[in-house]
Specification:
It is a single chain. This protein has 343 residues and is mainly α. The protein has three domains: 91 residues, no CATH class; 113 residues, no CATH class; 112 residues, Up-down Bundle (Receptor-associated Protein), CATH 1.20.81. The longest helix has 55 residues. The radius of gyration is 28 Å and the shape is globular.
Length: 343
């Protein structure tokens, strides 16, 4: 139970720091075994779970003779898809394998965080209203008591505070919209990838970065473009990449289409298509892929900064309205409402 909670709440963050440490060490000439041995001792008794994963990784490498990627997979530090993505990268640029894993995880979480910043403030305020609804009703009654004790016509408590029904209804609506949005994205991933990329540009950028960085590293390690496409088409978790690269693999095997022609069907932006088309036709795919990665990295970072700014602002505006509307009703009944006073 504790390990399950750990993997849900803390594992990603601590894995990120571990991989940053490993990538820097590998870049400076250390071996992954040396780095893992050193940090295992540094952890001490502070984190028994990450220490257990490190110990299992070392055992697989030293005792079983597994490769770095295989050992990391067996110890549960990385998934099967991640293992398939980095096992060839380790042969030429091992430190980039760790960087890739961290960037890929970060890319996958960015849309979730952006949507979270839009909905979380509102959900938080509605939960507070639900919890403290009885106290707010009592406070309103106390403010109205001097008038209601004398007036023949009682001033009613606003509908917001009669019971929790209205707050629960709004909370259900907000949660429904949020999960509906996630469900809509999942539906488009399965059945309409071109529309997914058209509506959610961030998903297009993530697809390009997460997959073309792999292709770039595989090409640098001596793999062919065809082999790189085959590896990406074998992914099991990313249904978008699996579908697109399976189609690219079939087209390349049959020789009827270039890669850029398949990507064009999926609403990939024109600059990316142009880079790939130029690389395929001029036999300079490696340079083209590098340009694709750099171009999309810049655009992705710009898109993330915009989403972080404006979705957060929208979330704060909605939260402010949710805070103010019930309070404005209290002010109305305790000021304007008293004009209906009848002796």
């Amino acid at each position: 139970m504790y390990e399950f909670l750990y993997r849900k709440l803390k594992f990603k963050k601590e894995r990120f720091h571990l991989f940053v440490y490993i990538s820097e060490g590998l870049r400076n000439g250390s071996t992954i075994v040396e780095l893992l041995e050193t940090i295992k001792e540094s952890y001490g008794d502070k984190n028994k779970y990450i220490q257990k994963y490190i110990q299992k990784t070392l055992y697989c490498m030293e005792e079983l003779g597994d490769s770095e990627a295989e050992a990391l997979y067996k110890s549960s530090l990385i998934s099967l898809e991640e293992k398939q993505s980095i096992e060839h990268i380790f042969s030429s640029e091992p430190y980039k394998a760790m960087i890739f894993l961290n960037e890929k995880t970060s890319n996958e979480d960015n849309l979730k965080w952006a949507i979270g910043m839009l909905f979380f403030p509102t959900i938080f305020i509605l939960l507070l209203y639900i919890i403290f609804q009885p106290e707010l009703k009592e406070m309103t009654n106390e403010m109205l008591a001097p008038v209601n004790n004398l007036s023949l016509k009682k001033i009613a408590v606003p509908d917001w505070f009669e019971d929790r029904t209205m707050f629960l209804s709004y909370l259900t609506l907000v949660l429904g919209v949020m999960f509906g949005l996630f469900g809509f994205v999942s539906y488009l991933k399965k059945y309409n990838i071109p529309l997914l990329f058209k509506i959610f540009k961030i998903k297009e950028r993530e697809f390009i970065l997460n997959n073309f960085e792999i292709i770039q590293s595989l090409l640098n390690s001596g793999q062919s473009l065809m082999r790189s496409v085959e590896l990406l088409s074998e992914q099991t978790n990313d249904i978008v990449a699996k579908k697109i690269f399976s189609e690219i693999r079939s087209s390349m095997q049959e020789g009827d289409k270039f890669m850029y022609e398949v990507l064009k069907k999926y609403n990939i932006d024109s600059a990316t298509i142009s880079y790939i088309m130029s690389g395929e036709k001029n036999n300079s795919v490696n340079n083209a892929i590098r340009s694709v990665v750099n171009y999309n990295r810049d655009r992705y970072n710009l898109l993330i900064s915009i989403l972080s700014k404006y979705l957060q602002l929208a979330g704060e505006i909605i939260m402010t309205l949710i805070i103010l509307l019930p309070l404005i009703d209290i002010i109305n009944v305790t000021t304007i409402g008293t004009l209906n006073f009848q002796v």
